[in-house]
TrEMBL record:
Database matches in PANTHER family: METHIONYL-TRNA FORMYLTRANSFERASE, METHIONYL-TRNA FORMYLTRANSFERASE, MITOCHONDRIAL
SUPFAM superfamilies per the UniProt record, alphabetical: Formyltransferase
Gene3D superfamilies per the UniProt record, alphabetical: 3.40.50.12230
Residue ranges of domain Formyl transferase N-terminal in the record: 57-158
Protein name (record): Formyl transferase N-terminal domain-containing protein
Domain of life: Bacteria
Native organism taxonomy: Bacteria, Pseudomonadati, Pseudomonadota, Gammaproteobacteria, Pseudomonadales
Length: 292
């Protein structure tokens, strides 16, 4: 594919670099990564540069002369006039079915709200985040066993399948584009600490939705007697009258940790402590007892 591509991305957007390298010649791809993304990149750094400031990015784009500019998970605001450096425009790849879930964490909120579908939207960038005309969309089914981690993999798979065709049709982007329907638009930000935390003041269902929305890679924050663990898997604890009457907020033995919430008990099946996955609650309790 003969197309000069400038790709601007954050950490999660690094997932697309191998795809773009596979569909372009080395000299036709330039990746501009946020500083944090550049620091995390462990592959070949050929044609990958950190974005040090807006002026340097603009100058680099003018020098590179891309046909298209693609953007994904870059969290800082970009001047839309950068699109003038390209032939066909600057397009953002957003992991939702816009205009639903405009903003920084669409997968988190979609799962927290129990949505049965998420998606990928390719849209022109404007001065306002995620409100540009839509070029193409693809829907992704969410199953009851999905969490943020598995949904993100589905999103990447969908992009790998669809992006080459999107790029191939670049000369038709303007004619393909359609306005977003403001009547169904929703906007979200980034989840607060409270939104990412389990709570005894929330129901079993609400807490399970938070775990699902945080995903296995991160986990939902849980405070146990002042100690913080990140829960990656949990389930509804079996009905037990003795537990329901217990004054304790949590009960543990060698293999099970139960956490009391508003309408019952959660059984914590897996969690992380200091980045280490906990396989036995006896080990966790010993670590907490020694001030880990």
């Amino acid at each position: 594919m003969t197309c000069r591509i400038a790709y601007i991305c954050g950490v999660q957007g690094l997932s697309l670099v191998p795809l773009l390298r596979g569909i372009t010649e080395p000299e036709d791809l330039m990746v501009f990564a946020s500083q944090s993304a550049f620091n995390e990149w462990e592959g070949d750094t050929q044609n990958i540069e950190p974005i040090e400031c807006a002026e340097m990015l603009r100058a680099a784009l003018v020098t590179f002369r891309p046909d298209i500019i693609l953007v994904m998970t870059y969290l800082s605001k970009l001047d839309v006039s950068l699109s003038k450096s390209s032939k066909y425009g600057m397009v953002n790849i957003h992991p939702s079915l816009l205009p639903e879930y405009r903003g920084g964490a669409p997968i988190f909120y979609a799962l927290k709200n129990g949505e049965e579908h998420v998606g990928v939207t390719y849209h022109f960038m404007t001065e306002v985040f995620d409100q540009g005309d839509i070029i193409e969309q693809a829907s992704i089914k969410v199953t009851p066993t999905d969490c943020a981690s598995s949904v993100w993999l589905k999103v990447i798979k969908k992009i790998f399948a669809g992006l080459p065709k999107i790029i191939e049709n670049r000369s038709q982007w303007t004619s393909m584009a359609r306005k977003q329907d403001e009547n169904i638009a929703t906007s979200i930000g980034f989840p607060s600490l409270g939104e990412r935390s389990l709570s005894k003041l929330k129901t079993v269902s609400e807490n399970l939705s938070i775990i699902r929305a945080c995903g296995r890679a991160t986990g939902a924050r849980l405070s146990l007697e002042g100690h913080i663990v990140f829960v990656t898997e949990a389930s509804v604890a079996p009905a037990n009258a003795a537990l329901n009457e217990s004054p304790e907020s949590w009960i543990e033995n060698e293999s099970t940790l139960l956490f009391k919430v508003l309408d019952g008990w959660l059984e914590i099946n897996a969690a992380k402590l200091d980045g280490i996955t906990i396989s036995s609650w006896r080990f966790l309790m010993e670590a907490l007892a020694h001030g880990a």
